[in-house]
Amino acid sequence: MNKKVSIIIPCIEINAQTIKCIRKCLELDYPDFEILVLPDFCNKVSKDDRLRIIETGKVKPAFKRNKGMEIAEGRFFAFIDDDAYPDSDWLKNAMKYFDNGKIGLVGGPNLTPPEANFAEHISGHVLSSFMVMGPASIRYRVAENQKARELPSCNYISRNLDIKYDNNFLTAEDSKYCFDVRDKGYLVFYAGDVRVNHHRRDSLWKHIKQIYLYGRDIAWLTKKEFSWDKLYYMIPTLGLLGFIIGLLGIYNEIYSNLILTGFLVYFILMALSSLKKDIFTSFVVFGISVITHFSQAFGWLKGILSPPEKDKNVVWNSR
Asked: 203, 235, 263: which is the final residue of a domain?
C-alpha cells in the first residue's frame, strides 16, 4: 500500500509560527510525505520539492483543508494547524495504527509548548482538566490509547475516505469530519504517542471567544445533523439555565436552594481541580475554568437560536 502522507497546513499568512511548523514537518522521521501550506495570500516560493504553497484567498480553514485534499498526492492526509509543530516521530507513530483496517482516523494530544506565554499555559491547564472538558480533555494531555468520538484537526491523520469539510463552519468542521468518518464505519482513534505542540490563544479573552465559537458551531451542527448523543454538548447550557433559575427562585425556595447547593458543590470541585503550584495560577485557572463553561453555554444558546452561516468566507476569526 502506498503510505505517502500529505500534510495539510491551513493558515492566514506565513509568519514565524508557520515557518516553525513547516521546519519541524520537514524534519519528520518518515520516508514519504509532502507539505501543502495554504495561506490567504503569499509571495514566497518554496525551495524544497516536498513543500508547496497554495494561495486560497480569505476563506475559512475548512475550505483550505478541502483544497489541500483536492490537490494532495498522498492517500493519507495529516492535518495540523500553523501554530502547532509535531514531534519528529509524529507520522511514524501514527501510521502504524492504520495496519488495523478498521481505523479511519488517528490523532493524539496537542500539548502546550514550553515556550508558551502565561495566558497560553492557563488555557492549557483549563483545557486539559477533566472537570472542564470531560472526556475531551485527553486532547490536551497524554492519556491511554482509546477510541474517541472526535478529535481536533490540529492533530490528526486520516485515510482518504472521500470526506469533505463543511465550509460553513469556523470551528466545528473537524467534529463533523470525525462524525463522517464514524458514519462510514471506521474508528476514530486517540493515540498518546501521536503528539504535537500547539500554541493556545495568546490572551485569555481570545480563549473565551474561541470556546464561545465552538459552542455556537457545535449547536449548529447538532441542529443540522441531529442525533441524541450530540445533546452531550448542551450540558454547560443546562447548568447555566439551572444556575439562573436557582438565583431567581422561579419555582420555590426549596427547589432554588437545591440548585444553589449543587452549584456550591460544583464551585468547590472546580476549585480543587484548579490547584497548581502557586496560589495566583490556581486562582486564574479556577476563574477561567468557570468562565469557559459559561462561554460554551452562551455559544450553544446562540447556535440553537440563530441560523448557521452559509459562507466559506471568514466573518469572525477566533484568533
From this structure: 203
